[in-house]
Amino acid sequence: MESKPKKTFEDHWAEAFKDASMVPPDQCWDNIEKELDKKEERKPFLLIWRNKGLASGIAAMLLLTLGYVLFQKNGRLNTVRSESVALKPEIKASEKMNDTDKESQVIDKNTAIVTEKVKTPEQKNDLAEATYSRKPEVSISKISVAATSVVSTKETVTVAAIQPPAWIDESKTLAASDQIEKTTFGNVTTLAAADFEPYGNRFNNKREKLSYEFPENTDVVASDNKSRKGFWMGLNSGVSPFNPNYSDSNFGSDAVSSANKVSSESFNYASSSSVLPNNRPSSQPTNQIQNGRAVNIGITMGKKLSKRLGLESGFRYLRANSSLQTNVYAINENTGEIQAYFQANYLNQRVNTDNTIISLSENGNQAYDYMSIPMQMSYQIPILKKLDLQLLGGLSGDLFLRSVLSGANSGKNTLTASNSTYKSLNVSGLGGARLNYAVGKNWEAVFGSFYQHSLNSGLKSGNHLSFKPKMFGLTYGLNYKF
Amino acid sequence: MTSHTEIVEACIRQDRAAQKQFYELFSGKLFAVAMRYMKNRDNAQDVLQDSFVKIYKNLQNFRFDCPLEAWLKRIVINTALKALQKQPDWQIGMDDNLQIETTITHSNFGFENLKYDALLAMIGELPEGCRMIFNLFAIEGYKHNEISDMLGITEGTSKSQYSRARQLLMEKLLKEKRKEDRSMEDLNLEENRKDILL
Question: How many whole angstroms separate alpha carbon A375 and alpha carbon A131?
C-alpha cells in the first residue's frame, strides 16, 4: 500500500487558504461604483512638467548652450578690459610726474593699438607738481590728443593731466602739456579698424586730430548692444508622418520556434472558456508595423554668428505613434498577463518567463514620447526684402520618455527606458529648409520642411531588432528677433 | 444560471447589474487574498476597491486563455504589492541582513486545531517584507527568482525573508500548540478533581 507523501509546512498553509473567503465591508461596492462613474482625468499635455528633475536638467542644458553662444563675443570684450589695467578710484595726490619716459599701451586682444611715448618735461614744474585725482564719477565726453591740444576736465583744480577713460592704464596717462613724439601719431593713425571693432566707429580722424567719442553716461568702452543683435527666439511646431523603422528579419522564425517550445499542458483552461484547442501555431506569424503620425512643439533660440550663418537650439516635445498588427502573443502563465510577442521578446525581453501562442490577429497602437534638444547651424539666403530662405542642418539629442502599447488582446503597457530595451538617449541627424517672412519690425513667420533620422538604434544592444525612426514633414512657427 | 462568460460579456458592456453580480461572485475570495497581504481590514478594502476598478476597466482584455479566478487574483496581488511598495519604509522592510535560522524542525506543525482567523492573524503579525514573501512563496507558489523579479529585490533577500517568516510562524504555531496542550491538561485535571470529589 502506497503511503501518502507527507505535507510540507508550505502545503499546510496553502491548503488552509486555498478556498478562503471573507465578506468585504458593505460600503466597498458603493465606493467601486463611485469610482466607475468618475471620468478619467486628463493628463497634462507636456509630460515633462510631471518630472521636475528632467525639466531642471533640460533647463540647465539650455542655459549652458545659450550662455556659450550669447557670451562668446562678450568674452572678447572682457579680454580687453582685463588686459587694460583697471582704474583705481583715487590716485595719490602727491604723485610726481618725474618719470623720464612713459609708454602707454592699450592692448586689444593680441595687438598693441596705441603706443604713446610721453616725455615728462622738466620745465613744466607746475605740471610736475600738479596733482590729480581721478574719481570714477568724473566723466569725459571727449578726448583730443594732439601736440597743442588743450584738455579740460570737470575738475576745478588746475590740472593739466588728461583723465583717461577707464580702459586706459592710469600709469600711462597722457599729459596734455607733454610733448608727444610725432611717432606716436604714426601709431595712433595706423589703428587697425578691425582690432577696435567693438568701438572702432567711435574713433574719428578729424583733420590732424584723432578723436574718440565716448558713449554718454558711461565709462565702459564697449557697448553690449551690438553683441545682442541677431538673437532670435520662437515657438515652433511640426507635423509629419512617423516611420518607426523597426527592422528584424528573424521575427517569423523566432516566433514559431518560441511557440513550438510551449507544451499545451502549460495552460489550465477553464472549462467554460472558449479557448483554442491547443497552442500550436495554426497560421503564419505576422508582425506588421505601420507608419503613424508625429507632432512636435517646442521653443527655439538662435544667434547669428555672421551675416549669413547662425546657430539654433532649443527644446522640443515629440509625440508620435505607429500601429502594430500581430497574431503572436506571449502569455505569462502565472499571471495571465498577455503581451504582443513583439513587445515581450524584443522590447521587454521577458519571453523566457512567458509562453508564446499564435492566435487571432489584432491591431495595436504604439505611442512614443520624446524630449529633444536640437542643435543646428543655419545659412540664410535673402530672397525678397521681407523674405529669406534658411537652410538648416545639425544634430538632435532625443531623450526617450516613454512608449505606450495598447491592443485589444494585450491591454495597455507603458514602457520606459528602465523597464524596456529602449535607450534613454538617442542622437538624430536633422535638416531642413525654412522660409522666414518678416511681419513687423521684430516678428517673423516661419514655414518650411524638416527631415529627422535617428543615427543610432533606439534599442539597447542584445537583440536583432533595430529602431531608427525617421520623419519628413512640415514645420511652422513664429520668431521674435531681438 | 448565467455562466461566467455571460457575466463577463455584460460587464464589458458596462452593465451595472452584471458588474454587481460579478462583484458578489468574486469579492469574498479576493478580499481574503487582500487581507493576507495588508495589515488591516481598511487597507485590504482599499486594495479590493482598486482591484475591482482595474478589473472592470480591463475585462475586455481577458481572453479566457487562463482561469478567470487566477487572473482576478493576480490583479489583487499586484495591487496589494504596489500599495505596500508605496509605503515609505518599504526598503527597510526588505533588509537583506536577516539571520537565517532553520533550526526549528517539527513534524507536527500544530495546524490541526487552528482556525482560519487564527492563521490569518499570525500572517498579519509578520513584518511587512516577510509577510509579502511568505504569501507569494508559500501560498501563491511563486519561486524565489520570480519573487525577486516581481519585487525588484535579490533572490537572496527573498530567501532570507522567507526563512525569517517561516521561523516566526513556527514559533507562533508552537506557542499556540503549547497553550492548547496546557489548557487540555487543565481541563483533564479539572475533570479528575470533579471525579474525586464525586
Answer: 57
